Recover the amino acids of this structure.
């Protein structure tokens, strides 16, 4: 039978009024450099969780920046679309060529202006 080890990790007592350290009471399942860790405190698992969280934060920040860029460009894009639709409509192209494009463009403008 394998010898049972206690996780060697210590953390600040979450229930205490003082900032005393308590030792993790879980069984140490992973041995790293002679120390035993539970699944939560295993340095390899901690590193993987941290890397995953870091990647998620970076992606959220990228999404936020992209969203802000789009918001800032929206008035210019809307104005450019209105002008382009006016030009297309004034070109006198056959209806079957422009109907869908103009209709979709006008619907997008209406949506952006809150008219739909
Ligand atoms: Zn632990």
């Amino acid at each position: 039978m394998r010898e049972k080890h206690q996780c060697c990790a210590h953390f600040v007592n979450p229930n205490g009024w003082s900032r005393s350290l308590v030792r993790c009471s879980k069984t140490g399942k992973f041995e790293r450099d002679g120390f035993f860790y539970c699944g939560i405190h295993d340095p390899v698992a901690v590193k993987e969780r941290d890397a995953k969280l870091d990647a998620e934060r970076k992606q959220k920040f990228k999404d936020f920046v992209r969203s802000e860029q789009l918001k800032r460009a929206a008035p210019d894009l809307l104005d450019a679309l209105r002008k382009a639709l006016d030009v297309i409509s004034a070109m006198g192209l056959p209806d079957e060529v422009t109907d869908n494009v103009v209709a979709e463009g006008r619907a997008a403008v209406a949506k952006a202006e809150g008219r739909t």
About this structure: The CA atoms of residues 85 and 106 lie 8 Å apart. Strands lie at 10-12, 21-23, 30-32, 35-37. The radius of gyration is 30 Å. The first strand starts at residue 10 and ends at 12.
